[in-house]
Amino acid sequence: MEVSSSIGRYGWIIATSCGGLVLAWLSGEPSPLLAAIAAICVYADRWPTPLAIGFVACILGIFFLLPGSEIQAELKTYIRFSTFLASALAISLLIRNFQNITSSHRVESDTRLIVESMPGLGWSTDPEGNFKYVNRSVMDYVGIPPEAMSRIEGSDDFGWRQLVHPDDVDHAVELWLHCLKTGAPYETEHRVRRFDGIYRWFRNTGRSSRDQDGRITGWYGTTIDIDDQRKAEEALRKSEQQLRLLVDTMPALVWCATPDGEPSYLNKRLIDYIGLTLESFDNPEKKSRQSVAIRSVVHPADIPMMARIWSSAVVTGEAFTCRYRLRRADGVFRWVDGRGEALRDEKGGILQWYCVTVDIDDATRIQDTLRSTLDRLARASQAASLAEMSASIAHEVSQPLAAVVTNSYACQQWLSAKPPNLPRALIVMERIVRDASSAAQVVNRTRALFKQDAIIKTGLNLTEVISEVLQLMHDEAIAKGVSFQTNLEDNLPRIVADRTQLQQVLVNLLRNGIDAIDTEHEATQPLLVRSRLDGPHMVLVEIQDHGIGVEDIEKIFEPFFTTKNKGMGMGLAICRSIVEKHGGRLWATANDSGGTTFSFTIPAYADDSQ
Amino acid sequence: MIEDDHTIFIVDDDDRMREALCELMASRSLRAVSFGAVSEYMNFSKLDLPSCLLLDVELPDINGLDFQEQIAGEQHPPIIFITAHGDIPASVRAIRNGAIDFLTKPFIESELLEAIRIAIAQDRISRLARVELTKLQHCLSSLTPREREVLPLVVSGLLNKQAAAELGISEVTLQIHRSKIMHKMEAGSLADLVRFAEKLQIPSAWDRRSDTS
Fold first, then answer.
1. Percent of chain B with pLDDT over 90
2. B80 by DSSP, 3-state: which?
3. How far apart are CA B90 and CA B85, in angstroms?
């Protein structure tokens, strides 16, 4: 008969003891009291049992045996009483012992089931730490037959030690002893020998099991094969180490940032380069590392640009490139080329920014030197061609002049001869006239070469002229990826100008604007052409580019000054002279937002009726 | 100014300049022939007269300075350069290579005429020297081999006795050779003979012996 619920169990005990009491009362025989005593023993598990039993037995013995007792029967009564007491004590001890045995047996049979069905290697030990049971997988793994295993199980000196790798066994035993003492969970990794002698890594986990009094009744544990995992981890660690080594040794400065732009990693080279670590960007005011980093390593002049590019990259998530000056550990600012790209998850969210910075200072310097050398060369070649031209003009003039002089000497001689040779002198005179005229012609031709054609000023509709020129330049602009944007005021008064020359000015300025826009590196902004009235008698035209800008705004109007590879550097000088000849002004201003605006004024037609 | 026969050669690619130069020469009673290019000048068969060359630097077929270097070492009349755009390096080069003058157009008449006069005179002298040398060479070629051996020893200033010992012949024989040489070389004295030998660049036997000792 099994009673599983504790209430049922208590009910059963009370019923049994009450029954015993009643029976003893009715029969006057004390033996049924043994049933009640047994019940109390079972129930009063926690009390100091013999004392309780003694106490209860005394009460009951006195209660049952004393009334109606006779003097002569006294000895016999005491013997009975003692026998009863001894029986009660024996029963209580028996019950106590059996209780332990059953509980331990029950636990063991339960755990055997659990341990057997556990995945991996399962085991259990007694509170002293000796194996009580290991499951089938253990035996299969270590290749020890059940009989041999039961010897190991039975031994009192941790027979399992022979299965653990010699290097790991000391630590494992030490920890196990510690756990046995304190009851702390046992957790360690060690190698276990397989049946074929190969050691594999296992994670060994054990927990103590306790009874209701908190006493350790045994240990249960699993041992899981983590060899593959460990090897994978090892490989991973190794590859990570290699990667780190790669990142640290490659000749580039590498850094990473969180999606919101906070620097999260600097490679060793970068740390060495700037002489700062990631931690040095931390600050007590809890400002972002990003702003501290930019302020401490970027050239002050480049900070606004850098901050702009970086924050826009963080907002848009687009890859960025920028060129700026980076502060080296020794305080020297060097030009670097920075590039960054975001790593994204499958949903497109940014996980991390990866950025590379390359020192291009030397290259930049070489380039600068090269460029200035080229500039000088170009100037020199222009000067050379000018010298060549003047030499050729000089030759053209000096040849007939030399002939004139020589002929003059001859003529002099003929005339001063005695008698003078007049016919011969006349012939020579004719030649002198001829050669001198020829020299004069050369001079005239040269002047004509440099002289601009005569201006034919007429009343013109400026908007019309601008539209014509824009149409003319359309293809060229498209080819270079530049678009025009116009903002032309309606009802402008007519202007007085030479149509061709005005077109020439416009073409020149537009072409400059197109060339100034570096379509390869920047998002192209359109070339803006504006016209408006400037005072009552002037019309103003502005051509605004967002290009590279110019260094010296006045120098560009000097003859032979050019920023281009081709060209004589005469364009703007000619434009200015044309505009000034028309009574206007041509000038350039640097835009606040980058690039240059060329502006010129042309007088309005005085008699215009509009 | 120049009375004797002469020729002035002019090479200039500019017609007007050639014409003017010829006119100037004519007005000064100088005989001139002009050419437009160096090749024309070279092909012209010249009379054997004292002459000079007025040479332009910039010419269609060859640079005048290069031409001057080409003909260096040959017998050639002195050169006067005339150029429209002369520079210092060009003039230095010309003078160093033996040009009489380096004139820039338009030139001063007197300078040109002076240069021409010097050039003609120089050419005349060098012509005379050439004639004399030719005659001496002719005389030298009439000597017998033995006499040619004796000549250097005599002009080196050796005594007859020494020279005879040198050649292993008797003093009398040497004296016979010597008088024959004097006769053939048309030398009036030993001093004349020494001078001739110098012009003919006959090496001194004395020097040779002192070298070997």
1. 27
2. strand
3. 10
The CATH number of the domain where A584 resides is what? 3.30.565.10
Question: Does the pLDDT value for residue A534 go beyond 70?
Answer: yes
Mean pLDDT highest for which of A113-127, A543-557, B175-189?
B175-189
Q: How far is CA B44 from CA A102, A309, A342, B34, B39, in A?
A: 148, 82, 87, 10, 9
Q: Which residue has the tokens 């011969």?
A: A424
Q: State the Cα–Cα distance between residues A502 and A122, nearest whole angstrom.
A: 98
Question: Residue A341: enclosing H or E segment and its boundaries?
Answer: strand A333-344
- CATH number reported for the structural domain that contains residue A124 in this entry: 3.30.450.20
Q: Are strands A333-344 and A350-359 parallel, antiparallel or unpaired?
A: antiparallel
Nearest CA to A175 out of A153, A142, A149, A203 is that of: A203
Q: Does residue A422 lie in a domain region?
A: yes
Q: What is the helix, strand, coil percentage profile of chain B, to 5?
A: 55, 10, 35
Selecting from A403, A409, A424 the residue whose C-beta is nearest the C-beta of B16 gives A403
Question: How far is A560 from B128, CA to CA, in rounded Å?
Answer: 61
Task: Show which of residues 75-104 on chain B sit within 8 Å of chain A, judged by CB atoms.
Answer: 84-85
Which sequence spans correspond to the domains of chain B?
A: 7-129, 142-206
The better pLDDT of the pair B213, A489 is held by: A489
Query: Which structure tokens are listed for A541?
Result: 């035209």
Task: Report how far residue B51's alpha carbon sits from residue B54's, in angstroms, rounded to the nearest whole number.
Answer: 10
- Show which of residues 372-391 on chain A sit within 8 Å of chain B, judged by CB atoms: 391
CATH class of B7-129: alpha beta
Q: How far apart are CA B153 and CA A593, in angstroms?
A: 100
pTM of whole model > 0.80? Answer: no
Q: Are residues A259 and A128 part of one domain?
A: no
Residues of B in contact with A414 (CB under 8 A): 27
Contacts of A435 in chain B (CB under 8 A): 16, 20
**Alpha-carbon gap, residue A335 to A78, rounded angstroms:** 113
- What pLDDT was estimated at residue A26? 79
Write out the residue range of the structural domain in which residue A496 sits: 458-603
Q: Is A477 on the interface with B (CB under 8 A)?
A: no
Query: Which of A395, A413, A438 is opposite residue B28, by nearest beta carbon?
Result: A413
pLDDT above 90 (res B54): yes
Quote the pLDDT of residue A590. 85
**Which of A394, A404, A410 faces B27 most closely, judged by CB atoms?**
A410
CATH classification number, B142-206, choose in 2.120.10.30, 3.40.50.300, 1.10.10.10, 1.10.260.40: 1.10.10.10
Q: Among A542, A550, A544, A535, which residue's Cα sits nearest to residue A603?
A: A535
Whether chain B has a CB inside 8 Å of the CB on A400: the answer is: yes
CA nearest to A407, candidates A393, A423, A426: A426
- A398 closest CB neighbour out of B28, B105, B109: B105
Q: A352 and A260 share a domain?
A: yes
A380 and A341 in a common domain: no
Looking at the structure, do residues A206 and A302 belong to the same domain, yes or no? no
Question: Does A442 share its domain with A324?
Answer: no
**Which of B24, B25, B34, B109 is the mutation pick for testing A, counting most A CBs within 10 A?**
B24
Average pLDDT of chain A?
79
Q: Pairing mode, if any, of strands A263-266 and A253-257? A: antiparallel
- CA-based radius of gyration for chain B: 24
CA-based nearest distance A409→chain B, Å:
7
Is residue A309 assigned to a domain?
yes
Q: Which residue of B has its CA nearest to A391?
A: B85
**Same domain membership, residue A150 and residue A50:** no
Closest CA to A404 of A432, A365, A426: A432
Contacts of B80 (CB under 8 A, 6+ apart): B52, B53, B54, B55, B99, B100, B101, B102, B103, B112, B115, B116, B119
What is the token pair recorded at B36?
A: 């437009």
pLDDT of residue A53: 65
